[in-house]
Design brief:
The complex is a heterodimer of chains A (471) and B (417). Chain A is mainly α and 471 residues long. Chain A is built from 25 helices and five strands. A three-stranded antiparallel beta sheet of chain A has the order 3-5-4. A two-stranded parallel sheet of chain A has the order 1-2. In chain A, a hairpin with a 4-residue loop joins strand 4 and strand 5. The longest helix of chain A is centred in the C-terminal third of the chain and has 30 residues. With 417 residues, chain B is mostly helical. Chain B is globular. Classes of the chains: A mainly alpha (471), B mainly alpha (417).
Chain lengths: 471, 417
């Protein structure tokens, strides 16, 4: 087998390599004697690696390097991708990100390579790369970057260790985003890993950014769906509802499965949050308005049943449709909907009564015993959903007013920051509006429709001139 | 006057024409007391026979069901002879009308259609009567003709139950350029009130009835009696007016006082309500209820009206107080404390009373919302909603800007994740 030795040209650039250079290892040649072509290929790879090391400095150099890499991409790299791994050790993921990326991408694109290295250090290598790569460089080859990320995700899923993918993917998301408002395909992948690993808080760091730019609608739907599931896991139903609302009302010309599932959860979370499902706002696509309910009939029926206010009816309905809910993986949510009914009924009581006996609470909310009523009220007080005190001696509950006086300094800060946020948002809106008003296409459309209106009125004014021969 | 004391004769004497028979039949249908039922049916039968109205006659006979002896059994011979005569008359009228039509004399044609309309009406063919009356419209030359036509149409429409037409033709009649006779004005108001009552517009109905002049008297007995105007007007007013309107339009209304004198019980209960003697007011209402249930126009609306009046009473009762002892209130309203508590809870939920119930001590406390806190809360909430909506909108705008089309998904990008 051919010994791997550094060709003379590389010694010059030796100082640029990373200090934690791993020892050179044998290439995985699978026992076959490499042909002359393979040897030549290896040499060209070495040359390429040298270029990478040499040209990873300024922007001009990078552009040149990019050209070289694109040339080499294809047969040169792919045919001998198995041998690429050791070369990576000569490169620094941070300084030579672009070149590293090309090599890595080539390597992981072959499933044979992946199988050979399954469970090994490959995962660590990729993870390291994602965390330490340079954002500017990898943005020059986004597709390859995304491919590498996807491979990482698949690997951790196969290993049943989604948690290993979280940190690297989070870093990856930040690197490939041009701004924090941009949605990338990685967002959905990242959130999915968080969900599988039950690391909901990790998901929050990405969800907290507002998204305004979307390149691919499919990314958006998955992002909204997974994001909502994370919020549901954290019981932040209002934020979950926002995301689901976006998924349901996004412009679409044909229905997709993600939206259907999103709508199912939308119904359930709406019921938990506010006790009713709002009707479609008028900007919802007509496709969604016409078809969504047909695909989610039991959920629509559930919300009608909820509206009657009867706990026992709702319970019966849920039991009889339990299987369907289970297949949709929504049974947990459905149970929360059921328990929210008690809460809603108890909350209504706080609006009407100052004090009420536990017995009366039990009977009006359809609970079986005053003890159960006490338990529910206690839990609601602990969760901060109502303000009340329980007098056990008399079996009475006194409902109190919300103690918030809007006078504390925290409240003032909260209000102030809200105002700032809204002003910024408003400014953004105005600037977008101005941009649209100056847009050429918009102006064309407006003036032509005005003209159309003018011409449509003329026949009414001069019926003699415009006889039926006109269109 | 409770149900078993209803004087059917006196009641029927207030009305004339078809409505007398219709009302009698209605009473017979709804009244539970057999004696009154039979009395009403007997009178209906006699009246129908006298008017030679076979449709109503057959109806009465069917309902009597041989309970009143041989004289009230189905007399097919009589029916046939009446029908024959009616047929003959009809042919005669139609021939006459055709004659007039060929002669093209407007006035004769108009009168011809009128006569036919009258004929159909008398024999119970209401939709034909309606059509005939409508056709006179093209031949009306003076406003008097128009008014006459309107009155006919109104009469038929009321019986047909088509109250939209009633309102329509009332306004047509009121719009004629000539000043109308006071009686006609009163009739029109009463008819309009009736139409509003039947279409559940109680406030408008009250206003119309209250504007009905005393000239009405018993001139409109083929539709409505002056006692009815008083009862309908007072009940609708109680259910829908606020205190100031009640005072100015009902209690201080001199014209309406004439009507109220005819039904002293109703006058008493209106005064009781205004003077906050709710217990006595509700008692009067309960006493009147069985008879009012037998009224052909009021029956369906009685439940709603009574509920509204009771709720208004409760709301008015609680308005001046900071705290109200439910026991006292229950005795004032003659109901149990638990029933009252439930009613109050319902009213509070509907936001008609601003109060909260202390169920432990059975006291109702008035509750005035803290404006300051409410304002803060609303402001913060509006801010949140604004933020949420704008963000969603910007996102959607972006999606549209990239002109997304799901058809473009496959193969859109090299790397399809």
């Amino acid at each position: 087998s051919r010994p791997v030795s550094s060709p003379p040209t590389r010694r010059k650039a030796a100082s640029r390599t990373a200090p934690d250079q791993t020892p050179e290892s044998e290439p995985s040649s699978k026992g076959k004697a490499p042909s002359a072509a393979a040897a030549a290929a290896m040499e060209s790879v070495e040359a390429l690696v040298a270029h990478i090391q040499g040209l990873s400095g300024s922007a001009d150099e990078l552009a040149q390097l990019h050209g070289l890499l694109k040339q080499a991409d294809g047969d040169a790299l792919r045919a001998h991708s198995a041998g690429l791994l050791p070369f990576l050790s000569h490169l620094h993921p941070g300084a030579h990100s672009l070149g590293y990326l090309y090599l890595l991408d080539s390597f992981v694109s072959s499933s044979a390579n992946l199988r050979a290295h399954a469970g090994g250090d490959l995962l660590v290598t990729v993870a390291d790369f994602l965390t330490s790569c340079s954002a500017d460089q990898i943005r020059m080859a986004p597709d390859k970057f995304l491919n590498v990320c996807r491979v990482l995700k698949n690997e951790v899923m196969q290993l049943n260790a989604p948690i290993r993918g979280i940190a690297p993917l989070r870093a990856a998301v930040r690197k490939i985003q041009t701004s924090s408002e941009q949605l990338t395909p990685l967002h959905a992948e990242y959130l999915m890993l968080c969900l599988l690993a039950k690391q909901y808080k990790a998901g929050l760091s990405v969800l907290e950014d507002d998204i305004f730019e979307v390149d691919q609608p499919k990314d958006l739907f998955l992002y909204c769906y997974y994001g909502a599931m994370i919020y549901i896991g954290l019981k932040k139903f209002r934020k979950a509802l926002e995301l689901l609302h976006n998924a349901v009302t996004a412009p679409m010309s044909s229905l997709n499965a993600i939206t259907v599932e999103a709508y199912k959860k939308y119904v359930l979370v709406s019921l938990i949050q506010s006790g009713q499902v709002p009707s479609f706002p008028k900007y919802t696509s007509s496709t969604a308005q016409r078809n969504l309910k047909n695909h989610t009939q039991i959920y629509v029926d559930l919300s009608t049943c909820y509206g009657t206010g009867s706990y026992s009816d709702l319970e019966t309905f849920i039991q009889s449709n339990a299987e369907a809910f289970q297949t949709d993986n929504n049974f947990g949510l459905v149970k929360q909907v059921l328990s929210s009914m008690y809460k809603r009924n108890i909350q209504r009581l706080t609006q009407t009564y100052l004090t009420l006996s536990l017995e009366d609470i039990a009977s009006s909310v359809q609970l079986n015993t005053p003890k159960e009523a006490e338990m529910h009220v206690l839990r609601m007080i602990e969760d901060g959903e109502i303000h009340a005190t329980i007098n056990q001696k008399d079996g009475m509950v006194s409902f109190n007013e919300d103690p918030e006086q809007y006078k504390s300094s925290e409240m003032v800060e909260h209000i102030d920051s809200s105002i700032q946020r809204l002003m910024a948002l408003s400014k953004k809106l105005t600037s977008i509006d101005q941009n649209i008003s100056c847009d050429h296409a918009f102006l064309m459309k407006v003036s032509s429709s005005d003209l159309q209106m003018y011409f449509s009125f003329l026949p009414l004014c001069c019926p003699l001139l415009f006889s039926n021969k006109c269109e | 006057v409770s149900a078993d004391q209803l004087d059917v004769e006196a009641y029927a004497a207030q009305y004339s024409g078809r409505t007398r028979v219709a009302r009698l039949l209605f009473i017979a249908e709804r009244c539970g007391v057999e004696a009154i039922q039979l009395e009403a049916l007997r009178m209906a039968h006699d009246e129908a026979r006298a008017r030679e109205d076979t449709v109503l006659y057959l109806d009465a006979v069917l309902k009597i069901n041989s309970r009143l002896g041989p004289r009230y059994r189905h007399d097919q011979a009589w029916v046939d002879s009446v029908n024959r005569r009616a047929e003959q008359r009809k042919e005669k009228l139609e021939t006459e009308l055709n004659g007039y039509r060929t002669n093209l004399i407007k006035e004769s044609i108009r009168m011809g259609y009128n006569d036919i309309g009258d004929f159909f009406y008398a024999h119970g063919h209401l939709s034909e009567a309606f059509k005939s009356y409508i056709r006179t419209r093209d031949y009306c030359t003076t406003s008097k003709h128009i008014v006459q036509m309107c009155m006919h149409v109104i009469l038929v429409s009321i019986e047909l139950g088509q109250f939209a037409h009633v309102t329509n033709y009332v306004s047509k009649a009121e719009q004629t350029p000539d000043t109308l006779d006071a009686v006609i004005v009163a009739k029109l108001r009463a008819a309009a009130g009736l139409a509003n009552l039947e279409t559940k517009k109680y406030k408008l109905a009250a206003r119309k009835f209250l504007e009905t002049g005393p000239e009405l008297g018993s001139n409109y007995s083929e539709v409505i009696a002056p006692q009815d105007v008083a009862v309908y007007g007072a009940l609708c007013a109680l259910a829908s007016f606020d205190r100031s309107e009640l005072k100015s339009k009902v209690i201080d209304n001199i014209n309406f006082r004439n009507f109220l004198e005819l039904v002293p019980e109703v006058r008493e209960l209106v005064n009781d309500f205004y003077a906050s003697r709710y217990g006595s007011c509700l008692e009067h209402l309960e006493k009147l209820k069985p008879n009012l249930l037998l009224d052909i126009h009021l029956r369906e609306h009685l439940g709603t009206l009574y509920n509204d009046i009771r709720h208004k009473a409760i709301i008015q009762y609680t308005l001046p107080f900071i705290s109200v002892d439910l026991n006292t209130m229950a005795s004032a309203f003659k109901s149990s404390v638990s029933m009252l508590e439930k009613e109050l809870a319902a009213l509070i939920t509907e936001n008609k009373i601003q109060a909260r119930i202390d169920s432990h001590n059975k006291i109702l406390y008035a509750r005035h919302a803290d404006q300051r806190n409410a304002t803060f809360q609303r402001a913060l909430q509006t801010g949140n909603e604004f933020e949420r909506d704008i963000k969603a909108m910007l996102l959607r705008a972006n999606l549209i800007k990239h002109d997304f089309n799901q058809k473009n998904w496959p193969g859109q990008r090299k790397m399809n994740l």
